[in-house]
Structures are given as structure tokens and as C-alpha cells.
Design brief:
About 5% of the residues have low confidence. Strands 8-7-6-9-10-11 form a six-stranded parallel beta sheet, sandwiched between helices. Strands 1-4-3-2-5 form a five-stranded parallel beta sheet. It is globular and about 60 Å long. Helix 1 packs across helix 5, helix 8 packs across helix 10 and helix 9 packs parallel to helix 13. The protein has 13 helices and eleven strands. The protein folds into two domains: 150 residues; 159 residues, Glycogen Phosphorylase B (Rossmann fold, 3-Layer(aba) Sandwich).
Length: 329
């Protein structure tokens, strides 16, 4: 699997902003091969991971002449496609910073039709002439089923399990040797949330304190340094490619029902995901059932705590701990 950053260049016409130059260059490079399927996924891990997990059936149905697949993602998610090393001979990943992704999407009016050779914006809220996500969620269809529809693969398409490159595992083990003691009871808290409504900082601080009182050594996933660690916890920085071996070693993870939950869905850890009320954006109107790992086919033994949006911080903590105490005793 290839990955590279665009080589920026100066066009011969007009006066363009720095942002426009980057967007123009990215768009030019995405169109380098008219026989490739080119997808732009500007969203987060909860969209990229399911999409790539469907690449096996996509290749089966749409790459019969050895066509390649090019995927443009944001920089912090570039390792997710690499988790599926079985697709490395077909899938090329291009990663760009957030501002250049925004410029590429906004400045070129990318199409959402299923056409080989032209960049396809893989966003269900702006697909064709409408919002697929809003329409489908109202009918009880899951997010992964929407992705299957967009990729033109059968609804019974197989969700591939990642085959991690050894380099990801080795890097994770090296990081764990610095701060992790397998003899101690440990738990990883992951407060980061991009799409879902986040829990207040005080919520995570109180959850961490309760777990410490239960005898746990508590680690914080800081989104690889993009957010501060939870007060009183151990800062643990890792990439998405390292997430599964990190979680397997620590053994227990409490996180948002968001992208990391999908990435860890096939890990051996005990994972509890938290969901706070409805999704905030008017584009979504997504019930929990639409993003549930179980309903999306990723984890049959899903453990999720749904916390009412109307709960105060103290009430939310008690609600969560009422479920966590017996499970983590």
C-alpha cells in the first residue's frame, strides 16, 4: 500500500491563495490515472474504517481489470487503510492536513456519482441529490449499509478484519514498555470525539477517580497528543495503527461510541463504549441503533452505556458507574 503527501506547485494562471494552490495540486494528483477508483473521505475514523473494511467485496465487483483504488484522507487517519494489509497491492492512500482537505472538497465541487477516474466525494450527507444518511436512518438502516449502497456492493458484503502490519505492533509494544506494567490492573479512557457530542471534562475526571479507587491504573488516550490527558491519569499517545495492540495489552477500554470503537471492534480487549444523547448536527438525526457496532456488523458482544442527554455531570457519572462497577469489579 502506498502513501504520499502531495508535491505543491505553482500554476501558470492568475493569483491563487496558498490554500487554493494546495487544493488544485491535490485535485490534479487525484486524477493521475483514469482507470483508478478515486475516493475522498473527509470525515473521521468511524467512516474510514468501515469503508476500507468493505474493500474486499469492492475489489471483487469493481476491480476485475486490476484497477487501483486511491483514497484521500486527513493526516491523522492515514494509518487506518494500512491496518488492512491484505489490500496493500490495490490501495493507495494520500493523506493531507485538515485545511487542504477542506479546500479540496470546497473548491472543486466534487461529484458524488459512482464514476471511475474522477474523484468521488464519499460523504453520505451529500450524495447525489440528497442526504442519504437522513433518509436511511429514518428507515432503521445502519451506517455500514449506507456505505455498502454507496460502494455498489451487496448488502451482505463481508466486513474484512484488519491484518495489522508487524511494524504497527512493534511500535505499540515499544511505547507500552515505557509505562505499562502487565502485572497491574489497567484501563484506558478515550474521551476524544469528533462527531458525537462530547462528555464534559469533569465527567472523565470523575470516572477516572472512581476507577482508581477500584484499584485500576488509568491511562488516557490523548488522540496522539491532540487533546490533554484526563487529570490524574497516565498520558498514553498512540496512532490508529497502534490502537489494537495497545488495547489488547491494557485489556480494558472505555471510549466514546465513535471512530476508535470501530477501530478496536476486532481487538481482544474488553471495550465499553459511551453514547450521550442524540447526534448534535441537523445533518444526522441518527439514533444510536444506526451507529451501534453490533447493528453495523462489527461486534456482536458490544457493551454500550447510553446516557441521557439531559443528565447532569454527576448524574451521568453515577449512571455510567452503575454499569461499570459490576463489569469492572
Amino acid at each position: 500500500m502506498e502513501t504520499y503527501a502531495p508535491q505543491y506547485w505553482m500554476p501558470l494562471w492568475g493569483h491563487c491563495s496558498n490554500r487554493e494552490l494546495r487544493a488544485n495540486d491535490i485535485y490534479r494528483q487525484l486524477r493521475y490515472d483514469p482507470n483508478s477508483w478515486v475516493f475522498i473521505n473527509p470525515w473521521g475514523a468511524g467512516d474510514i474504517y468501515p469503508m476500507v473494511s468493505l474493500m474486499g467485496d469492492f475489489i471483487k465487483y469493481h476491480c476485475t481489470n486490476n484497477e487501483r483504488i486511491v483514497l484521500l484522507v486527513r493526516k491523522q487517519y492515514e494509518e487506518i487503510p494500512f491496518m488492512f494489509s491484505q489490500f496493500s497491492d490495490r490501495l493507495t492512500t494520500i493523506s493531507v492536513p485538515q485545511e487542504y482537505m477542506d479546500a479540496t472538497v470546497q473548491d472543486f465541487g466534487l461529484q458524488q456519482t459512482f464514476t471511475k477516474g474522477d474523484p468521488i466525494l464519499f460523504v453520505p450527507t451529500h450524495w447525489g441529490q440528497g442526504n442519504l444518511q437522513r433518509i436511511f436512518f429514518l428507515r432503521g438502516i445502519s451506517a455500514t449499509e449506507i456505505f455498502k449502497f454507496m460502494l455498489h456492493v451487496p448488502f451482505d458484503a463481508t466486513l474484512a478484519k484488519p491484518i495489522l502490519p508487524e511494524a504497527f505492533v512493534a511500535r505499540a509494544e515499544a511505547k507500552l514498555r515505557q509505562s505499562f506494567d502487565p502485572a497491574q490492573k489497567s484501563v484506558l479512557l478515550s474521551p476524544s470525539s469528533v462527531t458525537l457530542k462530547p462528555f464534559p471534562t469533569a465527567f472523565w475526571t470523575m470516572i477516572a477517580q472512581h476507577l482508581k479507587e477500584m484499584g485500576y491504573r488509568v491511562f488516557s488516550d490523548t488522540a496522539n497528543g491532540r487533546i490533554p490527558p484526563i487529570e490524574g491519569t497516565i498520558d498514553l499517545r498512540f496512532t490508529f495503527g497502534e490502537a489494537v495492540p495497545v488495547a489488547n495489552a491494557i485489556g480494558r477500554v472505555i471510549c466514546h461510541q465513535t471512530g476508535l470503537a470501530y477501530v478496536l471492534s476486532y481487538s481482544a480487549c474488553k471495550m465499553t463504549s459511551l453514547y450521550l444523547g442524540p447526534l448534535p448536527s441537523p445533518l444526522y438525526h441518527a439514533p444510536f441503533s444506526a451507529i451501534s457496532l453490533k447493528n453495523n456488523g462489527f461486534k456482536d458482544d458490544e457493551e454500550t452505556i447510553e446516557i441521557p442527554d439531559s443528565a447532569s455531570v454527576e448524574e451521568a457519572v453515577e449512571f455510567a458507574m452503575a454499569a461499570l462497577r459490576p463489569a469492572y469489579a
